[in-house]
Amino acid sequence: xxxxxxxxxxxxxxxxxxxxxxxxxxxxxxxxxxxxxxxxxxxxxxxxxxxxxxxxxxxxxxxxxxxxxxxxxxxxxxxxxxxxxxxxxxxxxxxxxxxxxxxxxxxxxxxxxxxxxxxxxxxxxxxxxxxxxxxxxxxxxxxxxxxxxxxxxxxxxxxxxxxxxxxxxxxxxxxxxxxxxxxxxxxxxxxxxxxxxxxxxxxxxxxxxxxxxxxxxxxxxxxxxxxxxxxxxxxxxxxxxxxxxxxxxxxxxxxxxxxxxxxxxxxxxxxxxxxxxxxxxxxxxxxxxxxxxxxxxx
Length: 298
Description:
With 298 residues, this protein is an all-alpha fold. The protein has one domain. The protein is 76% helix and 0% strand. It has nine helices and no strands. α2 packs antiparallel against α3, α2 packs antiparallel against α6 and α3 runs antiparallel to α8. The longest helix is centred in the middle third of the chain and has 43 residues.
């Protein structure tokens, strides 16, 4: 049995393209807000450090008090950003269920996006990365065609997350070295150094650690889910196990869980690696299609 209409056709319908544009715009909004927040936190941290270094009264813990307040405010804004990803996740899930022909699981995503929400977000999208979102699976039988697209989805993001995690770790190490150097050159006391060069930058250090940890976790979760899908694929082609639509629905639930917790990667960084990762994704999909053809499943 073949998916009808095929995934390749369904994903390029007007409503599908609109959903892809909407989710891309919403994720970019969250990344933009996150970048603005980080710049703001950095500016305030530098201001607190400067104020602490130039004041003459060691009893005034300007950096320490300001740093604690900054940490609390930063945490609230981070929480708000994570909540805003919910709509983008819901739109992505609506798109996948539509093009894959899967049933909606309201335990994984409780509410569907409204047409107005999708249309408003899509109208603000200025990119071109919407057509042919998933590889063309040709005549591969259902639900093997769904598995090909699902593994492509999680396999695409894992290398990007890992690369960005290492870059963020390097940047955090560099900034830490600069702060230590400033402390040494300024010759301030231990208390003044902590007040001026440690506490104000705790929010940024927290951001860096969370960013690194979340990106490594996202890479690991996506690789584990891809491995799970490929194991089911191999079992289905060998006849050892069967790959059912309910099993693919289970894979989809894992993908939703990953999307909900997914770490942020700047758009500019993703664009730098997009060509290589897209080529790897499409090569893997082509190999899977050829394998299905060899065993008479396409």
